[in-house]
Structure to design on (730 residues):
């Protein structure tokens, strides 16, 4: 067994934090300041932010350090001589795990400009709408002649600049659709607003009785409200492929002519000899030419335990060296590494997700042309009937205003916002706008094993069967290593109140285990082959005392809270549950049997998982993927909808549609039920909007839709839809 490292990852995505630090371009002595990015997987609250920023600021040469809790990342401005290694060491002394990220690969995190822009336009539209509505009330109450004309001109002075400013999101979207020779929901919206303003100006200039400035502003306000609610349900658009690429090691130690020097990873070439120290991540694919150690592949392959590594063995970029220094000869660098190929898989899968058409878009395809045809027919009919262009244009505008999809614009975002809030209280964060719609369609659920169904940490299972003196001796030897099995022994022994034996000369043998002296006798704790034991099925560490027979310490992967409940609830709801893992066949079969999962796939590579999910999708299956590691990222993106735990690697969380905030998996089944209810409410809202149109459209076509009737109809339909959405909170 070896030392150190399986990262303990925790998270609190519900907490919020300031965005990453802005880039500065200060110069010092002609040299540009270093801009360093650190991944901080173990931070979870505002206290962590303060502690990390304070500790980084204490490092000599650091000018500014800012932490983003959402991204679990620190951005540091420092003098050129400050290195990431110094910052990492400083944080580890404080108890925080840190890893360097390639700042050049990561795009700068931007503030939510789109959200702020929508909110600002919504506020302006709302303020203007209230003022124009006050003027309209006076007109409806009987103001006539010069007074009515004055109120209409004042309304125009308020409405025109407001609509020009607040309506820009709809204008841009409609123009983009028309340039592409297609219709979307924003085309009838823009047409209704523009026609309402034009006819209102015309009527005002001719001292007409009716003007629709208030209706145009109300349309803009309600539709912006729907657009903002929709925006709030979306995650920050970060690419999972970009996050994967940033995990590639930015620098490496190259051994040449008996000297070791640090070079940027971009300068590495095939054939270079690279030194990877304990705790370091492999920068390239290669072959070990010197050294023995153990490798943590859990995030790449899903293998729950470290694997032995020695001369002649192949290694892959992204694997973590645990116990002993290794020299590797590079066989693939840059874009040819396995980690980069995994990023390519994710990028391909991400592009495929755009095939999903949301319920709102489906409705728009039917609704937009219908509205335009109805308005055009009304115009032509009244023009032929009355011969009056002014009357025909007014009625066409009234038809567009009445039928403008306020209710449809609120139908989806109102429901998804209510459902997202309900699930958040249950510990689930909805990231993607259409995630609930897709989750409601799921008929197959695929679980990863290590880190998803299990906690990813071993648990000692046979301590009660072991003699107390052997347990005390194993505890003493385990304290000399931070290998996952050693830590499991320490936790179990300390929980049982066992004190460590008195030993001397404790040392760790990289790749094998620990050994020491007990009253002149050599004692060892480690791999079966090292201590002369016969390895059996399952995971074990062996204690050897002198010539005595080795004693086995057996382990199993600890189940995550709620795993059994989630699997059983999903099966009870009629969904097929599949276990897919990169772990060994025996470990996967044992877990499948333990949870009652009939269908499982073991020793699956990242491409295997993504390919199988793609095959199921092509066969018409709607797959929910639940996973947490790099090896799951492509599968998470390829699935119809995906969930990752908060403890997952950043890249997996970015690729997923929903994040499980707590450690308990049981809310997954509740989420599927809530999603089904949400889609039911969305369809109800569409029906409400349809009934509203059936009642209101004849009034508009008949020329009876005054501005007052239009305002009441639009408001009532929008409020009804919103109230129906709120039923989800119950």
């Amino acid at each position: 067994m070896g030392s150190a490292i399986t990262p303990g990852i925790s998270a609190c995505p519900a907490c919020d934090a300031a965005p990453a630090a802005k880039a500065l371009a200060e110069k010092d002595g002609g040299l540009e300041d270093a801009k360093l990015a650190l991944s901080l997987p173990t931070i979870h609250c505002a206290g962590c932010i303060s502690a990390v920023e304070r500790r980084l600021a204490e490092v000599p040469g650091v000018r500014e350090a800012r932490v983003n809790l959402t991204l679990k990342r620190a951005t540091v401005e420092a003098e050129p001589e400050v290195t990431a290694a110094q910052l990492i060491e400083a944080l580890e002394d404080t108890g925080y795990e840190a890893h360097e990220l390639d700042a050049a690969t990561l795009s700068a995190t931007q503030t939510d400009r789109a959200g702020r822009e929508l909110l600002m336009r919504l506020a302006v539209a709302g303020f203007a709408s209230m003022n124009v509505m006050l003027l309209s009330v006076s007109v409806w109450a009987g103001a006539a002649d010069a007074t009515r004309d004055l109120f209409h001109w004042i309304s125009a002075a308020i409405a025109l600049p407001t609509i020009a400013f607040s309506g820009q999101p709809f204008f841009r979207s409609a123009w983009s659709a028309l340039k592409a020779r297609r219709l979307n929901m924003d085309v009838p919206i823009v047409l209704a607003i523009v026609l309402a303003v034009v006819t209102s100006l015309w009527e005002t200039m001719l001292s007409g009785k009716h003007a629709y400035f208030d209706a145009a502003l109300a349309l803009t306000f309600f539709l912006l409200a729907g657009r903002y609610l929709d925006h709030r349900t979306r995650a920050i658009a970060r690419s999972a492929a970009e996050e994967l690429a940033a995990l590639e090691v930015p620098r490496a130690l190259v051994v040449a002519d008996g000297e070791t020097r640090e070079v940027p990873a971009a300068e590495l070439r095939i054939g270079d000899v690279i030194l990877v120290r304990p705790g370091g991540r492999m920068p390239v694919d290669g072959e070990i030419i010197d050294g023995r150690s153990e490798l943590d592949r859990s995030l790449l392959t899903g293998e729950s335990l470290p694997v032995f590594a020695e001369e002649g063995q192949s290694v892959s970029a992204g694997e973590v060296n645990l116990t002993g220094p290794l020299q590797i000869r590079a066989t693939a660098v840059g874009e040819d590494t396995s980690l980069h190929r995994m990023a390519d898989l994710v990028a391909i899968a991400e592009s495929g997700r755009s095939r999903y058409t949301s319920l709102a878009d489906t409705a728009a395809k039917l609704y937009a042309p219908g509205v335009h045809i109805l308005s055009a027919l009304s115009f032509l009919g009244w023009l032929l009937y009355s011969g009056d262009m002014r009357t025909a244009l007014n009625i066409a505008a009234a038809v567009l205003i009445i039928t403008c999809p306020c209710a449809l614009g609120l139908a989806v975002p109102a429901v998804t916002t209510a459902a997202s809030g309900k699930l958040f209280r249950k510990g689930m964060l909805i990231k993607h706008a259409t995630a609930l719609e897709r989750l409601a369609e799921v008929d197959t659920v695929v679980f990863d094993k290590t880190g998803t169904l299990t906690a990813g940490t071993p648990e000692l299972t046979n301590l009660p069967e072991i003699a107390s003196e052997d347990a005390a001796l194993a505890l003493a030897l385990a304290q000399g290593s931070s290998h996952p099995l050693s830590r499991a022994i320490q936790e179990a022994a300390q929980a049982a109140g066992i004190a460590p034996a008195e030993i001397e000369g404790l040392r760790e043998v990289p790749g094998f285990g620990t050994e020491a002296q007990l009253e002149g006798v050599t004692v060892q704790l480690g791999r079966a082959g090292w201590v002369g034991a016969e390895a059996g099925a399952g995971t074990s560490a062996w204690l050897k005392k002198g010539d005595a027979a080795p004693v086995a310490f057996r382990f199993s992967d600890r189940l995550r809270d709620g795993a059994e409940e989630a699997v059983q609830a999903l099966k009870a709801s009629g969904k097929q549950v599949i276990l897919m893992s990169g772990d060994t066949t025996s470990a996967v079969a044992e877990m499948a049997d333990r949870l009652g999962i009939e269908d499982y796939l073991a020793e699956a590579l990242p491409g295997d998982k993504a390919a199988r999910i793609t095959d199921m999708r092509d066969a018409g299956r709607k797959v929910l993927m639940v996973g947490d590691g790099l090896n799951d990222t492509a599968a998470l993106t390829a699935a119809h909808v995906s969930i990752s735990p908060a403890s997952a690697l950043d890249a997996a969380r970015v690729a997923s549609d929903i994040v499980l905030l707590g450690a308990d998996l049981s809310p997954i089944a509740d989420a599927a039920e809530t999603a089904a209810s949400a889609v039911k409410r969305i369809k109800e809202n569409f029906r409400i909007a349809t009934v509203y149109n059936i009642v209101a459209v004849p009034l508009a076509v008949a020329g009876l839709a005054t501005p007052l009737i239009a305002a009441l109809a639009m408001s009532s339909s929008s409020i009804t839809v919103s109230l129906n959405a709120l039923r989800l909170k119950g």
